[in-house]
């Protein structure tokens, strides 16, 4: 898995091509000035895994909300004010002591934007996409999420319009925590299914 | 069934659209791969026309 932007990389040919296309689209008036920058800013600062963490914390704290979330993910997530592109058809899959869920997009990089923001680089890389369906147990162990040999693993390939979110198990010893404190425990990777909270 | 959505293979070729049911289909990894692990399930979302009776 590649490191995520710890070192500035030289501009690649594809980045130059994207910049040229963006300049041309703006010049022709097909994309409004600043549109791409505004989308990028929103997804970098306002929309991200903190949204999903609120959903998970609510489900941990409120059993009736958890029921609604597992029955109709899109509607339950909208209750907290989250929705939009790449989140129109949400299905939430719940981890249990016997079952571990993990999400992947073998075709490209489909990912639930409203609750997790934009996907990390490794999620889009072919090795993750190929190996998560081929040898999930080995890959999860390499990513720091070893599972017991007998665990059932469900790999959800976002190959159509549904976007998945993993509801991790609530960690033991968190009974006295508030919902906000619980949200602080929920990581992006645990909602992809490649880590435990 | 996941829902009824426009088939992307048709969308990609022009302005025509066709709505079809899409299903979450579960595959046993032991059937998908020669060394597939027991207890691993791969769930793939597939449009109706991708499927044939088994």
The whole-number mean of residue pLDDT values of chain A reads 93
Major β-sheet strand ordering of chain B: 1-2-3
Q: How would a textbook summarize the main sheet of chain A?
A: 2 strands, parallel
Query: What's the tally of helices of chain B?
Result: 2
Quote the beta fraction of chain B: 35-45%
| Quaternary organization | heterodimer
Tell me the structural class of chain B. mainly beta
What is the N-to-C succession of helices and strands of chain A?
A: HHHHHEEHHHHEEHH
Strand order of the largest sheet of chain A: 1-4
Number of helices of chain A: 11
Low-confidence stretches of chain B: none
Largest contact between protein chains?
A-B, 20 and 18 residues
| Number of strand segments of chain A | 4
Euclidean distance between termini CA atoms of chain A:
20 Å
Query: How many β-strand runs of chain B?
Result: 3
What spatial form of chain A do the alpha-carbon principal axes imply?
Answer: globular
Order of helices and strands of chain B: EHEHE
What's the N-to-C terminus distance of chain B?
17 Å
Mean pLDDT of chain B: 93
Task: Using the CA coordinates, give the radius of gyration of chain A.
Answer: 18 Å
Rg estimate of chain B, integer Å: 14 Å
Indicate the topology:
The complex is a heterodimer of chains A (197) and B (54).
Chain A: H1 13-27, H2 35-45, H3 49-61, H4 63-71, H5 73-79, E1 90-94, E2 99-104, H6 113-116, H7 121-124, H8 126-134, H9 136-142, E3 152-157, E4 163-167, H10 179-183, H11 188-192
Parallel strand pairs in A: 1-4, 2-3
Helix pairs in contact in A: 3-4, 4-5, 8-9
Chain B: E1 3-6, H1 8-11, E2 19-28, H2 29-32, E3 40-47
Antiparallel strand pairs in B: 1-2, 2-3
Structural notes for this entry:
The complex is a heterodimer of chains A (197) and B (54). Chain A has 197 residues and is mostly helical. Helix content of chain A is 45%, strand content 11%. Chain A has 11 helices and 4 strands. Chain A has helices at residues 13-27, 35-45, 49-61, 63-71, 73-79, 113-116, 121-124, 126-134, 136-142, 179-183, 188-192, and strands at 90-94, 99-104, 152-157, 163-167. A two-stranded parallel ribbon of chain A has the order 1-4. Chain A has a two-stranded parallel ribbon with strand order 2-3. Chain A is globular, with a radius of gyration of 18 Å. In chain A, 35% of the residues are buried. Chain B is mainly β and 54 residues long. In chain B, strands 1-2-3 form a 3-stranded antiparallel beta sheet. The mean pLDDT of chain B is 93.
């Amino acid at each position: 898995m590649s490191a995520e932007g710890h070192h500035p990389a030289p501009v690649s040919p594809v980045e130059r091509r994207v910049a040229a296309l963006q300049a041309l689209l703006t010049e022709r008036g097909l994309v409004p000035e600043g549109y791409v920058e505004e989308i990028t800013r929103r997804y970098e600062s306002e929309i991200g895994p903190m949204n999903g963490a609120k959903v998970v914390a609510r489900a941990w704290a409120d059993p009736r909300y958890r029921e609604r979330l597992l029955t109709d993910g899109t509607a339950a997530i909208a209750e907290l004010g989250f929705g939009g592109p790449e989140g129109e058809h949400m299905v939430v899959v719940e981890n249990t002591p016997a079952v571990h869920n993990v999400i992947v997009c073998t075709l490209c990089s489909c990912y639930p934007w409203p609750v997790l923001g934009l996907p990390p680089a490794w999620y889009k890389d072919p090795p993750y996409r190929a190996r998560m369906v081929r040898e999930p147990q080995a890959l999860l162990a390499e990513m720091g999420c070893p599972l017991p040999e007998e665990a059932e693993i469900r790999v959800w390939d976002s190959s159509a319009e549904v976007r998945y979110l993993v509801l991790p198990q609530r960690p033991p010893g968190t009974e006295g925590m508030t919902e906000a404190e619980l949200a602080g425990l929920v990581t992006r990777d645990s909602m992809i299914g490649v880590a435990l909270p | 069934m996941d829902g009824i959505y426009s088939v992307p293979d048709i969308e990609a070729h022009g302005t025509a659209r066709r709505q079809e049911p899409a299903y979450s289909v579960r595959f046993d990894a032991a059937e998908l791969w020669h060394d597939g692990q027991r207890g691993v399930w791969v769930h793939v979302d597939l449009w109706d026309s991708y499927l044939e009776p088994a």
